[in-house]
Design a protein that fits this description.
The complex is a heterodimer of chains A (about 190) and B (about 220). Chain A has 8 helices and no strands. Chain A has about 190 residues and is mainly α. Classes of the chains: A mainly alpha (about 190), B mainly alpha (about 220). At the A-B interface, α2, α3, α5 and α8 of A face α1, α2 and α3 of B.
């Protein structure tokens, strides 16, 4: 799975008909992209839908992909736009409430005892993310999952770099407070 | 980029914590659906964008070829060809000769010449070969006639063209006799005899000058 080729090279190879190149690319970004949707909207069904939708767009538009476009930025630009579309259609803006996170799913299955701590940590993360306003939550996820810089996030979300920096600082501080050992997780 | 990292809020510890907790991933069925779609798309031939230089080049070449073809058709397709000019010369010469010959054979020759002079215009494709042969023969005759006419170019320059029969209806007997006299003077005796014959048929009671009668008679002997 450790293919030395760059994302651009893989995408261009796929454009020329190399399906195996796409599989490598998919393996690199399937988890980050899915987590971006999953923790941003807090709904597994929506995350599934958006995740497949973004990859479908990538596949359909492969012939228009150009070298140097930056696949990761390209991928998360589509993802961000998909999320914004969802929020608009749902009739809410990023500044409005985050009550949809109240339905944030827990672990799908009860694991063995060795999974107990992981489950607890997962719940804490979900609760902590739920406390964040959507705009701060998305900035945090774009940094964590897409690895974008402040400048790139600013371009992606259409706000100033200082605004992004401020949102990220607030998000990190709140999450650190919520997730630090000994801190109490607020009840949903 | 370095400056950007310096500006980033400190996430030390939080990153690791997030990695441990955020382990959500897509279902295997979703993976199979996406990869299946990708494979199907990869197996289809790639669609080339119109912005691609190759596509532009092909389109431009096709358009240029079309313009060139249309231009050639307009330039050459609607103008008389050198062959048809030769045909005209040949037909004019044939009509001149017809005037020198007796009426019945002249009609036959004229029809034969007309057949060979207008091959493509009146023949169907089934007769194409025969038309081409007669057309080639006509061209050869026209060329031969052209060479002869060039040889006697100086003489013919002095000649007055023989009047067509249709124009004779407007001539007076005196003017007609003057033209016959001019033919005798120019040495065109066959044409002069033919015109004398026509004159006698048209004006049976008219007197033909003696010099014309003697010249025509002496030349026929």
């Amino acid at each position: 799975m450790d293919d030395p080729r760059s994302d651009d090279t893989l995408m261009l190879a796929y454009r020329e008909g190399d399906a195996a190149a796409f599989e490598v690319l998919y393996g690199r970004y399937r988890k980050p992209l899915y987590r971006y949707f999953f923790y941003a909207c807090g709904d597994r069904a929506l995350a599934d839908e958006f995740f497949q939708d973004v990859w479908s767009r990538i596949i359909q538009a492969k012939d228009r992909y150009r070298r140097g476009a930056g696949f990761k930025r390209y991928l998360f630009r589509i993802a961000h736009n998909r999320l914004v579309d969802h929020w608009r259609r749902a009739g809410r803006t990023a500044e409005e409430g985050d009550e949809h996170l109240d339905q944030f799913p827990g672990p799908d299955t009860e694991g063995p005892d060795s999974e107990a701590e992981r489950d607890e940590l997962r719940n804490e993360l979900m609760n902590a993310l739920r406390q964040l306003p959507p705009d701060q939550r998305e900035v945090f996820l774009l940094q964590q999952e897409a690895g974008l810089t402040l400048e790139q996030i600013a371009q992606r979300t259409g706000v100033g770099r200082e605004t992004v920096k401020s949102r990220l600082r607030y998000a990190v501080n709140k999450l650190r407070t919520q997730l630090s050992p000994g801190s109490e997780t607020p009840e949903p | 980029m370095t400056e950007d990292k310096r500006d980033n809020p400190d996430t030390t510890g939080l990153d690791k914590l997030y990695r441990q907790a955020a382990d959500a991933e897509p279902d295997r069925r979703i993976d199979e659906a996406v990869l299946g779609k990708a494979r199907r798309s990869a197996s289809r031939p790639r669609r080339r964008s119109l912005r691609h230089p190759g596509a532009w080049g092909t389109g431009l070449a096709a358009a240029a070829s079309l313009v060139l073809a249309v231009g050639l058709v307009f330039q050459y397709g609607w103008q008389p060809t050198p062959e048809s000019e030769q045909m005209k010369q040949f037909r004019a010469r044939a009509e001149m000769e017809q005037a020198d010959k007796p009426a019945a054979p002249a009609v036959g020759d004229s029809r034969k010449l007309q057949d060979s002079a207008e091959p493509t215009a009146i023949r169907e494709s089934a007769e194409l070969n025969r038309v081409q042969v007669t057309g080639a023969r006509a061209r050869d005759e026209a060329e031969r006639e052209g060479q002869e006419s060039r040889k006697t170019e100086a003489d013919e320059a002095r000649m007055a063209a023989p009047p067509p029969a249709e124009e004779d209806e407007e001539r007076t007997p005196e003017a007609w006799l003057d033209q016959i006299r001019q033919l005798v003077n120019n040495g065109q005796m066959s044409e002069a005899r033919y015109q004398v014959r026509l004159f006698r048929e048209s004006y049976p009671s008219a007197e033909i000058p003696v010099e014309i009668r003697e010249a025509v008679a002496s030349d026929s002997e």
